[in-house]
Design goal:
Number of domains: 2
Number of helices: 1
CATH class of the largest domain: Mainly Beta
Shape: elongated
Strand content: 35-45%
Helix content: under 10%
CATH architecture of the largest domain: Sandwich
CATH topology of the largest domain: Jelly Rolls
Largest sheet: 14 strands, mixed
Bound molecules: calcium ion
Order of helices and strands: HEEEEEEEEEEEEEEEEEEEEEEEEEEEE
CATH superfamily of the largest domain: Galactose-binding domain-like
Structural class: mainly beta
Mean pLDDT: 82
Number of strands: 28
Oligomer: single chain
C-alpha cells in the first residue's frame, strides 16, 4: 500500500492545479451575499438586518472591527436573532456562512445559532472574538432564504460581527471518485457521514435535498424528502447493499425509506416511527447487481416531525481485486453534482482542503470546499 501513496498525492496536486486553471483567474473576491456585513451602516437600525424580537438585542459597541456589532440577549429560556431579508440563493447551491462571534461577560448556557430559515448550526462561544464558519447545501426548490445570527436559551448576551455568505464549490477527489465520508475497504463501499462536519448536510452522494437541517441532523416535516445516489467508483457494480438509519428525535409521523435503480420505480425498504426508531436493513436483492442505487427518505402524510442523525450505506463491489489497494489507481472521472470543472468561469478565491487519508487496504475519500 505504501508504494501507491506518493503517486496518488502527486496526481492529486497536479489535478488540482488543472482544475483551478479551468475555474478562471481569481478576481478580487466573490461577492458577499449579506447586506451591511460589518454592521456599520444604518440610522436607528443596522441596514438590512432586523431583530426577531425587538427586546432581544441591540446594535452597539464594542465591535470586532469598526464601531458596531450585532448583539442578542436572553434570559436562559428564550431565543432571539438578527436576520436579513430574503437573499438570492440558488436552489441546491452550496454556501459558506462565516462570522466573528463571542459571549459577552457573564453569559451562560444555551448556544449561538446561525444559518438560514432551513439550515442551522449551533456554536458554543467563549468571551474572546472567535471565527465561526460552516458550509451547507441549500434545499432544492428554494430560491430565496434569509440568514440569521442569534441565540438559543442563552442567559446574557452574544455579539456578532463581520459576517459573510459566499457560494462554494465542492471539488471531489477525482482519482478516488469519492468524497467526505465515503470509503472502500476490502471490496466493500461505505458511506458513513458525520453530519457535524464542516460541510453539514452536504456530501457527494446527496442527490435531492428537500429537508431542514440542524447542526448535525436532518429535520423532517410534512413534505420533506431526501434522495442519495450511490454510484460507485469506476462504475463498479454493487452486488447488494445494507442501509442503517437512525431517528434520533421523534414527535409525530413516520419516515419512509425506499430504494430505486432509476428514480422512477421505488421499492419499499423500511418505515420508522416513534416505536421503531431506525435500524439496519438489507436492500431488496431484486435491485442488484446495480451500477447506481438511489435511496429516498421521505415523510408521508401531514403533521409529522422527526429528525435523522445517521444514514449509513454499504455495498459489496463486483470485480475488485481485494489483494490490492482497491482504488489506488482509479483514473476515470464520474460526474458529480458539484464538479469544479462543470462550473467553469467562476472565481476561486480561497481553498480549504479537508483531510484525506490512506490506510492499509483502505482508501478514504475527501472533499475540498472552495469559495466561488
Ligand atoms: Ca463591525
Amino acid at each position: 500500500m505504501s508504494t501507491t501513496r506518493p503517486r496518488r498525492h502527486q496526481n492529486q496536486a497536479c489535478l488540482l492545479v488543472a482544475l483551478l486553471g479551468l475555474a478562471g483567474c481569481p478576481k478580487a473576491g466573490a461577492q458577499n451575499l449579506l447586506p451591511n456585513p460589518g454592521f456599520e451602516s444604518g440610522a436607528a437600525q443596522p441596514t438590512g438586518w432586523q431583530l426577531t424580537d425587538p427586546q432581544g438585542g441591540e446594535w452597539r459597541e464594542p465591535a470586532w472591527q469598526g464601531k458596531r456589532a450585532l448583539r442578542v440577549r436572553g434570559d436562559g429560556r428564550n431565543s432571539a436573532a438578527w436576520r436579513t431579508g430574503l437573499l438570492p440563493m440558488q436552489p441546491a447551491g452550496l454556501y459558506r456562512l462565516r462570522f466573528m462571534a463571542r459571549c459577552e461577560p457573564g453569559a451562560s448556557g444555551g448556544c449561538a445559532v446561525s444559518g438560514t430559515g432551513r439550515v442551522n448550526r449551533d456554536f458554543r462561544l467563549s468571551d474572546q472574538w472567535t471565527p465561526c464558519s460552516f458550509v451547507f447545501a441549500a434545499p432544492s426548490g428554494v430560491s430565496n432564504d434569509f440568514v440569521r445570527l442569534g441565540h438559543w436559551e442563552v442567559k446574557g448576551a452574544l455579539s456578532f460581527d463581520d459576517a459573510e455568505l459566499l457560494p462554494v464549490l465542492a471539488a471531489h477527489d477525482p482519482y478516488e471518485e469519492m468524497g467526505e465520508a465515503e470509503s472502500v475497504r476490502n471490496g466493500v463501499y461505505h458511506f458513513q457521514p458525520d453530519f457535524a462536519w464542516t460541510g453539514a448536510n452536504y456530501h457527494r452522494p446527496l442527490w435531492l435535498n428537500k429537508a431542514g437541517f440542524n447542526s448535525d441532523r436532518w429535520v423532517f416535516s410534512e413534505g420533506s424528502e431526501l434522495i442519495y445516489r450511490f454510484a460507485m467508483p469506476r462504475r463498479l457494480a454493487q452486488t447488494g447493499a445494507r442501509l442503517r438509519v437512525n431517528v434520533n428525535y421523534h414527535v409525530a409521523g413516520s419516515l419512509r425509506i425506499e430504494a430505486s435503480r432509476d428514480t422512477r420505480t421505488w421499492t419499499p425498504v423500511a418505515e420508522y416511527d416513534g416505536q421503531r426508531r431506525g435500524g439496519q436493513t438489507n436492500l431488496p436483492a431484486a435491485l442488484f447487481p446495480a451500477n447506481e442505487i438511489y435511496v429516498r427518505l421521505s415523510m408521508p402524510g401531514p403533521g409529522g416531525s422527526l429528525q435523522v442523525n445517521a444514514i449509513d450505506y454499504e455495498a459489496p463491489l463486483e470485480g475488485l481485486d481485494r489483494r490490492a489497494d482497491p482504488l489506488a489507481d482509479v483514473g476515470v472521472g464520474v460526474e458529480g453534482r458539484h464538479d469544479l470543472a462543470a462550473r467553469e468561469g467562476q472565481d476561486v478565491v480561497d481553498r480549504e482542503e479537508l483531510p484525506s487519508d490512506v490506510e492499509d487496504g483502505r482508501v478514504r475519500g475527501h472533499v475540498g470546499l472552495q469559495k466561488s
